[in-house]
Amino acid sequence: MNKEIQAYNNKQKATDKAICTLLANTIDKVLTEAESKIWHAHPVWFLDGNPIVGYSKLKDCIRLMFWSGADFGEEKLEPGTGKFKDASIRYASVDEVNVRDVTRWVKKSRDIQWDYKNVVKRKGKLVRLK
Questions:
Q1: Distance (Å, rounded) from C-alpha 56 to C-alpha 9?
Q2: 90 has which bridge partners?
């Protein structure tokens, strides 16, 4: 696991730390080719510089977000505001995390991608990569 991400996880309270560690280990196991780092204060995994998946601490849970998740066709993932293609799920307990679901979504994140890396250059317009 990336040392910065490990440090982020270690700063969380025990319940959230368990969720974060499980998510990071699951993502790392599937996206072996990804670059991971703390980006905008949260753990994020990138493929060719494009953000794919990450998680963040919210007031009462950990939110796992997929930048292109709205196109995964997964009812457990809740779409974002509609302007972009993100979707997420929230976890308040490690028992809520279904590793099989997370693994499937992470695999889909490799195959279904919108170009967030160049969204600023394109003045907010998203282009499908895969």
A1: 10
A2: 63
> 3-111 adopts what CATH topology?
Aspartate Aminotransferase, domain 1 (3.90.1150)
Identify the pLDDT of residue 118.
Answer: 72
Supply the pLDDT for residue 112: 94
Question: Among 46, 87, 85, 29, which Cα is nearest to 63's?
Answer: 87
Domain ranges of the chain: 3-111
Residues 6+ apart with CB under 8 A from 66: 52, 53, 72, 77, 86, 87, 88, 105, 108, 109
pTM of the full structure: 0.92
Coil vs helix vs strand at 38: strand
